[in-house]
């Protein structure tokens, strides 16, 4: 997303920092991602968002919208939940117990059926390549609109996999990437003492004053802000949120990277990070759909239910919006390929789920037909969904941001948010 010139400046700045001994030898590429601009704020009840991204496109008929009497029903059975009249998969029993805090959107319908384009579309609300612009993701929009200028922690963190970034908003709103939450962010550990670190950063600042004064390009200012904030994060008490080793709640979230990522997401929300995305891959179930979805559902079941419960107990559920979603759904019929058949891509009708964030829980929005093949009631587009998230967070989705060429781009174009439908 950055020009070649900017990439070259990035490498030079990072090398200068490394040569000065400011950072530990293992550089993971996180430094250019931390700078922040002043927020505009909003009036929404939610103050933060955790996006649980189900990479690959989960089957709606095997999770949130089972059709036991349909032709392609499969082998999973629906179970009752804490929300009267709402049933979900038998392999989400713990989530079923917290569905009184949740909303299932069963009327999602979108145009993109290829993974890369669908992921981009659901993160940004725009088709890839549309208008020749690289659009910002939801996380970057939240970073821009809700992030705090004096925050010592980043305003957008992506855990467990790469996410979509800031587009034309620039590097200030790129996510901090945490590949393995069990290892945290290793570069937060300084190779020298606190006193030495202070002396070296001070020396670096003096050496570069003239350069920054003479070269006033935005990219240079961005990188100056970046390493200043990086050092502040290294020295802050909030950095402990990235270390989940001693977290006493870990056990109930399950095991593995996704569970660890959800624990870290909760800890980051608690110290003021407004947007965290945690990825769980493996949902592209063209083959062996039922065993794979059963296994993946088990990971979701423990982690999501524990997250909702913990946030509720801490008094943070109303101020934290949790979203569970992928890039599309999967075919209502089961394919006939291979010894263990599965389901193929299906963007025409699918489901996502939301918890907390000021939503009235225990609800279902939208309805698919008896086969789960088309939306019969309240079709919901990507724009409707993204505008609703913005409204819950107090972000004005009609606001227009300017590209570097001065072109105004509305945050979400032509939406019909469903906030009032589920209030």
Automatic annotation (TrEMBL):
Gene source species: Gemmata algarum
SUPFAM superfamilies in UniProt: Alkaline phosphatase-like
Protein name: DUF1501 domain-containing protein
Domain of life of the organism encoding this protein: Bacteria
Gene3D superfamilies named among the record's database cross-references: Alkaline Phosphatase, subunit A (3.40.720.10)
PROSITE patterns assigned: TAT
InterPro entries associated with the record: Alkaline_phosphatase_core_sf, DUF1501, TAT_signal
